[in-house]
Amino acid sequence: MKKQFRVWSSILVLTSCSTLLFMASCKKDGASPDNPQTKSEPKVETVTKAGGKSVCYVEVNSNSLLNTGKYTLTTGGQQLFDIAIIFAANINYNTTTGKAVLYNNPNVTNVLVNKNTQIVPLQNKGMKVLLSILGNHQGAGFCNFTSRAAAKAFAQQLADTANYYGLDGIDFDDEYADYGNNGLPQPNDSSFVMLLDELRKLMPTKIISFYYYGPAASRLSWGGKKAGDFVNYSWNAIYGSYAVPNVAGLPKSNLGPAAVNIQSTSQSTANSLATQTKNNGYGIYLWYNLTSTDKHVYFSGVSNILYGSSVTYTP
């Protein structure tokens, strides 16, 4: 099944700390995402262990991102999760300006503005932290920009946010846009590729990932360019299943055909998906919906297959 519990407000009224509608993020210490006092240095991705990467989405409306850092391989001590994803910010639509705007709800904002306690500790463990961007029922999405200028303007918001908060990259999840709302157009073939192209120019060394789902999944090439030219990773979006994302240009090591919902996918299914991933030579295993409950036994089933080690939980 797809991601659950996603009831996102379509109201554009932001909190008092989100006075800039362009970014919809809190100011801190007199700086803004558009004009930050300091920006993080680009981070070069490193492989933390053999056997591929484990990627984990966390619903920060109800769970702490820090839970991803509590699991390590019993043998070797490396982190189980290589990439932790903040789920989720939104692409909203400003009816006054007629532009797409990035919106961080209060829970996402809390993680970002408290990056020193919520993000940096994970990065210090060698993990990468991404911000996932999701539609919000307002008609604005990744697939209906009608000009390169409009795509570039939204890409700039994403890059500014990633730089300002020291994130390692941006994840795209083309769900819940409700294309057509607010009189906005339906998806077109050029929009998503243009957006990726512009974002890669602004974030040459950061990660761009694609949750393989929605209209964007069938609009991955245009004008002689393809999504695989710009994204680092793509993974299957249907939990409990095995399906290789059809993203031309990405090698097996950067594709994740296995996806599990930690709260609902059985141990036997999770183990089977891990075996297929390993036997077929793919490099990503996707987890979703990590909570505060100790799941090291469940994770060990998969980890023993992928990494040859059980998992240790450290509260």
TrEMBL record:
Signal peptide (from-to): 1-24
GO BP field: carbohydrate metabolic process
Domain of life where this protein originates: Bacteria
InterPro entries with a match to the protein in the record: Endoglyc_H, GH, Glyco_hydro18_cat, Glyco_hydro_18_chit_AS
UniProt entry tagged with the keyword Signal: yes
A Pfam family hit: Glyco_hydro_18
GO function terms (MF aspect): hydrolase activity, hydrolyzing O-glycosyl compounds
GH18 domain sequence ranges: 52-315
Keyword annotations: Glycosidase, Hydrolase, Signal
KW Hydrolase (keyword) present: yes
Family per record: Belongs to the glycosyl hydrolase 18 family.
UniProt name for this protein: Glycosyl hydrolases family 18
Organism: Chitinophaga eiseniae
